[in-house]
């Protein structure tokens, strides 16, 4: 796709700047570390997607493409399209895909014209939480899904179920007082409230909305040093608000958290997600 022709909802301009800028580039550079961090969720998510031979699957907010690639690899005859805002991550995805029947495009899934009933399944691993207009985005995805088709997405539950975010925001928050990201705005908790998600999906043309709670450990690296470096980079948008002294203190606090959770299997913190499923 010609990047100059990228059509986005103007309300997603900030999201595009972030994900198609330095933040997305960081994710691209550290794709393997991110994939390893959420690896324990992958079997349940792939089973819930339940892709069948000849099905057409759309991976929304596919990032560097691991879900799309794992699905196509495990389902001979299926084809997958991955869309994301981040050109840097899409480059990684294309490189990883080799000759598999999976393609990757830069697109704003909230408004992109996918074609009517172009897919049997809409899938996503934490890629649907950043839309500025949830109902518009999920209606657009519904229009791209054949009648009877499926939506399967992994999203984070609330902060009370996510030790990793509680601990990381807590460590930085001792230097930079802040409220956790709200549940009604784009961000990690935007699809954490089942009532809100049900309302959005019903309003967007989906039915049979179902939530399965999954709880897994996330692994942030083999030791406290590498885990701290990974999260300092990923949360640079918070560190940028601090002066040098504050940055050093927040980094030291994070390192303490990582050290407290480091063990033989690496730095492990608890997390909780929903696998949300729905039908067209
Ligand atoms: C937390 S990352 C997850 C990436 C990937 N699904 C994975 O599991 O590795 C969220 C992704 O959603 C993408 N994203 C955010 N808003 C989007 C939009 N409106 N359309 C397409 N992708 C979007 C971001 O660029 C980012 O790569």
TrEMBL record:
UniProt keyword terms in alphabetical order: Methyltransferase, Transferase
Domain Methyltransferase: 57-149
Entry superkingdom: Bacteria
Pfam family of the protein (one): Methyltransf_25
GO BP field: methylation
SUPFAM superfamilies hit by this protein: S-adenosyl-L-methionine-dependent methyltransferases
GO molecular function, one term: methyltransferase activity
Protein name: SAM-dependent methyltransferase
